[in-house]
């Protein structure tokens, strides 16, 4: 039970933040049998201005004022909050009942931070809390029954004592008659009254037995209460049994690294590697890519500024990019390596296979600024021209 109370308390901060924008619902009236702590008398409710034991400047005053304004915790009838006093299980149940009656867990702000599994854990925690309260109420009912039985026995004792008082008065009258006259008639009356003295002794013995029985019943009631407290404490889960509740991060993954295959318009299939950031500033990101084809001796590196479209959690996320790079390929004349610069334009789409793994396909359009290497695929006699290729692969986001 203490575990679930801890879990509920962990979510109370987010619930109160959402509840600040919602008008509080009508609170259920406190039960007359509920504990006095944290429950104000309906005839004299406490208000934030009436709290006399939380001074101005106290680190917790703002929190106390908010809880009382929302009706989640009520002060004592004398205007005090008693912040250092321990909270009971009944008081905790009353606080969470008020919280649930406001429908705080149904607010969009709270549901956005909790997964369905988390809400299920909270529901089961509240159900177990209610079951524990029913069990405690049943045990308290048994104790009250025992106390009522003791009261009934005490009533019998009181009746017996009244009889003893009456007999004692009779004995006094007999003694007075014996002192005033010693006639045979009076003596006979005194002898008859001797039987009353024996009755008094018998009643005194009975009273002593009833007093002992009363003490035994009181001791048994105290033992039952102690046993109920021990059983309730033993039923509480240990700190190591806390449920593993996780919350979704506020910010999605931003960086990524990946690779795949690349096909240019000139040569066969090569390999490609990419890395970058989805968001850097103003909705724009960056991406670097390297392509190589060992059989054709083609190598290229480029960098692009990218602009993704759609939400970060979308299943498909298209993007475009603009940048430049350099291509190294065999020289047309000598066969040695030659470098050609180019301006690039990207167009692609990411498919969210999982939360961290994305599959992508990308078109890489290039405008070569020269045609020294054979990898450009440009015709003889041209100073530059269009080229490009396509990439297919996967990205790992983190």
From TrEMBL:
Give the matching InterPro entries: Cell_Envelope_Struct_Comp, SLH_dom
Q: Which residues are in coiled coils?
A: 193-227
Write the signal peptide boundaries. 1-19
Record flagged with keyword Signal: yes
Superkingdom of this protein's organism: Bacteria
Please give the start and end residues of each transmembrane region: none
Q: Where is this region: Disordered?
A: 23-46
> Which stretches are tagged as biased composition: Low complexity?
34-46
- One Pfam annotation reads SLH
Q: Does the keyword Coiled coil apply?
A: yes
Keywords (A to Z) from UniProt:
Coiled coil, Signal
- From the Swiss-Prot or TrEMBL record, give the protein name: SLH domain-containing protein
- Which species is listed as the source? Deinococcus radiotolerans
């Amino acid at each position: 039970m203490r575990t679930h109370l801890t879990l509920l308390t962990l979510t109370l901060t987010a619930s109160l933040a959402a509840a600040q924008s919602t008008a509080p619902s009508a609170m259920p009236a406190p039960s007359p049998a509920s504990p006095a702590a944290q429950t104000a008398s309906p005839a004299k409710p406490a208000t934030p201005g009436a709290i006399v034991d939380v001074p101005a400047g106290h680190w917790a005053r703002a929190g106390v004022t908010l809880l009382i304004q929302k009706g989640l915790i009520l002060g004592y009838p004398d205007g005090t909050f008693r912040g250092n006093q321990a909270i009971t299980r009944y008081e905790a149940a009353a606080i969470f009942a008020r919280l649930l009656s406001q429908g705080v867990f149904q607010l969009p702000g709270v549901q956005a931070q909790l997964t369905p599994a988390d809400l299920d854990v909270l529901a089961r925690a509240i159900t177990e809390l209610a079951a524990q309260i029913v069990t405690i109420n049943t045990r308290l009912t048994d104790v009250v029954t025992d106390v009522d039985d003791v009261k009934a026995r005490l009533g019998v004792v009181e009746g017996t004592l009244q009889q003893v008082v009456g007999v004692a008065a009779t004995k006094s009258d007999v003694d007075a008659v014996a002192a005033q006259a010693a006639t045979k008639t009076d003596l006979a009356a005194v002898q008859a009254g001797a039987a009353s003295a024996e009755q008094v002794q018998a009643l005194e013995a009975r009273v002593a037995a009833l007093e002992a029985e009363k003490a035994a019943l009181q001791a048994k009631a105290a033992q039952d209460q102690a046993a109920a407290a021990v059983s309730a404490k033993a039923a509480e889960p240990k700190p190591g049994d806390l449920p593993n509740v996780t919350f979704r991060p506020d910010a999605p993954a931003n960086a990524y690294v990946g690779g795949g295959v690349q096909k240019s318009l000139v040569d066969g299939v090569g390999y490609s590697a990419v890395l970058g950031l989805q968001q850097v500033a103003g909705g724009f990101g960056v991406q670097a890519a390297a392509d190589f084809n060992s059989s054709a001796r083609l190598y290229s590196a480029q960098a692009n500024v990218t602009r993704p479209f759609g939400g970060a959690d979308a299943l498909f996320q298209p993007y475009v990019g603009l940048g430049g790079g350099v291509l190294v390929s065999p020289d047309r004349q000598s066969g040695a390596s030659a470098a050609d610069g180019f301006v690039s334009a990207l167009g692609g789409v990411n498919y969210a296979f999982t939360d961290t793994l994305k599959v992508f396909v990308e078109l890489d359009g290039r405008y070569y600024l020269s045609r020294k290497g054979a990898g450009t695929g440009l015709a003889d006699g041209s100073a530059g021209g269009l080229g490009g290729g396509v990439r297919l692969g996967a990205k790992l986001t983190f």
